[in-house]
Amino acid sequence: MKKPLRIAVVGLGTVGGGVLKILETHKEMISVRAGREIQIMAVSASNKTKSRDFDISSYEWVDNAAELGLADNIDLVVELVGGSDGIAKVVAENTLKAGKSFVTANKALIAHHGAYLAGLASDNKVALRYEAAVAGGIPIIKSIGEGLAGNKITKVYGIMNGTTNYMLSQMERTGRSYDEILEETEQLGYLESDPSLDLDGIDAAHKLAILSSVAFGVKTDFENVYVEGIREITTRDIEYAGELGYRIKLLGITTYEKGKLKQRVHPAFVALDEPVAAVMDGFNAIAVQGDGADKCFFQGRGAGEGPTASAVVADLIDIARGHMDEAFFVPASKLVPAQPVSMTDHLSSYYIKLHVAEAAGVIADITAALKNEDVSLDQMHQKGSEEDGSVYVVLVTHEVLESSLHKALKEINNLPVNLNDAFAIRIENL
Question: How far apart are CA 276 and CA 371, in angstroms?
């Protein structure tokens, strides 16, 4: 059997603990599958004395994580700290420059610096692996880069954040408000330490930027991902979606055509008969459209100790087997800068919710504003009267340019009978 693969683990939180547990619990099985033993030589975290439900006494403790990649007795460093910069980036750079392989679950790091780190790995003939950074236990990186390697990928989309999917699912099931479900979600520990990463779609955008590079061979371009979160979604929107034959999901969608890259994360109406509409609670789901395999659909747990740690260990086994493929499955020097596409040119149909005072001529004023910007309607529904005499009006448009829709909504918002700004959600034809 080959010499052991000697590793160090930086970050001993939920995922770090899960990695150590898997490596120790399945030590013999992993050695057989990897063709050699994977040995944990050292660990590092911000607090050595913190109470943990796993034992670290048999490993060397290193206070300065930046030094681990430089150590002679370390072949590979696993980074599970998080963050696009700071110690995570320093550990990555030091490790790769020292000619050591690097494994991470850090989506922000790869989304912001993926092309740069891939270049370091390529120059030093070592591996950069990040399967755990996208969709937890779903092996989506390997599936696209290896299983679908013979396909020209044209589109990747799906649910890439389990927390927001859980929240939308609970709002639909219970009828409770966004604020009530948010409080429950926080108590359950599902939110990131910075909740805006989940709620504002940033976490999903990190993952989408990575998938764009894997699928299309473009440089990671997080800065040009269009992002909207779920903070404005109400139980009323969810109820109306169901009545119209849809379910609201926070989707990440990336397409690449003729050198133009469109990356977007936002809530969307999805038809109830679409597979992604049936994915509830904390699950993730990703669909990949290829010219040979057609549409492939992947579903699984998107986060948590077990699924994420499982993905990290799979990367370790791959490297132990000697697989040193390029990080994005093409040479780093061949990653191309893509031309981002503005959302103003996006073509879609829309759900629009209006809250208006019940007044003569209001419908005529609304339709006139839409007609002025060439926005045609497919459906219009008046949702009865509220206690104050106001009404909600639901519109469904035909396909229209986003720029035209926003102009029409601006006109509607200026109407004296309008009580709240019009709220629009894109209807996705997947």
Answer: 34
Q: In whole angstroms, what is the distance from residue 59 CA to residue 52 CA? A: 14
Q: What share of the chain has pLDDT > 90, as a percent?
A: 86
Q: What is the DSSP letter of 68?
A: G
Q: Could you tell me the end-to-end alpha-carbon distance of the chain, in angstroms, rounded to an integer?
A: 49
d(CA 87, CA 44): 11
**What's the whole-model pTM score?**
0.95
- The 10s digit of each residue's pLDDT in 81-93 is 999 999 999 999 9
Distance CA 21, CA 26 (A): 8
pLDDT mean over 341-348: 92
Same domain membership, residue 122 and residue 84: yes
Identify the active-site residue in 100, 107, 155, 207.
207
Q: Nearest 5 degrees, angle CA 113-CA 249-CA 291?
A: 65
Same domain membership, residue 185 and residue 61: no
Active site residue 219: no
Please tell me whether residues 281 and 259 are part of one structural domain.
yes
Q: How big is the chain, counted in residues?
A: 430
Nearest to 406 by CA among 345, 362, 361: 345
Q: Residue 239's Cα: distance from chain center in Å?
A: 25
